[in-house]
Each structure stands twice: as structure tokens, then as C-alpha cells.
Amino acid sequence: MRVQSLTLAVAGLALLAPGPPPAASRASDAPRGPVARQEGSVTAADLLSRVRDCTPVSRGRYRTDADAPATVPVCGTEGAVFWTADMDIDCDGRPGQRCNSTTDPAFSPATAFQQSDGRYLNAESLPFIVVPGVSTLWNHRDHGVRGGSVAAVVYGDRVQYAVVGDVGPREIIGEASYAAAEALGIRPDPRGGGVASGVTYIVFKDSRATPIESHTSAVEVGERLARSFVAGAAPAKAGTHG
User: Fold this and answer.
1) Rounded distance, CA 225 to CA 76, Å?
2) pTM metric for this prediction
């Protein structure tokens, strides 16, 4: 697992909730059931056909791991930014049965962004991706990417919609939550799961799932924007659903 994702946690937060919490009572916290190979009608092939060419918006390239060469640019179109990299597993956030300090030696009980109720995100149940920290290399906020922005993540023939849920190291790219990896058929184990290459992350500019923890909203907004993206049309105002 790569360097632990940056978070907004205050000092000493890691001392809180050292073990898995009691069974969750909210739908957003419940374990996810079987996941379809794609969410919505836009296929992996359709999305990948629109990201064959790269117009870089980053000032350089990112590493996929701390000891890897810098080979990954962030590319941009009118309505989205995208990159193709590996996928490391982010298990940070509220501890649970699969994501906690025992299963993940680099575990942090916080994520950079929080739910509407103030709690940190649940990596086990919510598909989310990680963006690099702001640096001279690239500032995601300058491209309409913030906490809750909606992304289409493509691996093989699978499409999974997700939100931007955490912030990682400034020079490393390619990470997503346990739930996102599991839905894409990628081994989600934070100790050695993930995949070394072939994952494409497409983040729709100025989009937002409302609330951030609503996967239903992410799918509704993502599907609508993905259809416009594939059609090559200028995106409509990326409002919120859900």
C-alpha cells in the first residue's frame, strides 16, 4: 500500500474508535450487495473511446507509487479531467469490519471530506476516489473538482460511479476506496490488493453528488454527465440529484 492518504484529521484523532463500530443502522453504512458489471447504460468502451487522446492540464506527471517513475499526466476536456493509473486501496474513514487499524497498518479514521452529518466517509460501503493534494503540479480545485465531485471509474469492461472522497500525497495518483475496488472486481485488501495499471478515472467538472454519501445520487448525476461526455456534447450545468 502506498503512502497513507492525507486527511484533515486533527492531532490525536487516531486514538478514537480503535476497533470496529457496532452494526450500522443507516442505509449508507450497510454492506453493499452484488454489484452489476456496469452502472447505467454508458459502457466502458464508450467512455474509453473519449479518453484516447490526452491534452494535459497538469504541469507534469504523477507517480503511481512512491518508488515509481512519474508517468501519469492529468488530462482535460471541456467537461471532465481524467487519468489512467493503478488503483491502490483507501480504507481510511470510519472503521468497520474490513477497514480498521488491524486490517490496514496505515489506517486513519478520517477522510479529507465528511458526510452531511459530519461523520467521516465509510470506505467499505461508499465508492470514492482519491485525488492528489494541491501542489504546483496540479490543483484539482482549479478544474472544478472538489469533495463530492462525481467520477466514472473504468476497469476492463466495468464502469463504477464514485465521488471524490479523500485527498492523497501531492505527487502520487491512482487510489480508490475499498467499495470502489470491490465493485470493479479488483481485490480490495488494503494490505496488498489493488491493481498495478489499467484503471481510468474520469471526473466530471463542477459536478456533485448530494449528499456526498449518496451513491444513488452519484449514479444519477454520473450517468447523465457520462452520456453527454460520450456524445461529445457540452455538458449541461452539472447540478445535483438525490
Assistant:
1) 15
2) 0.85
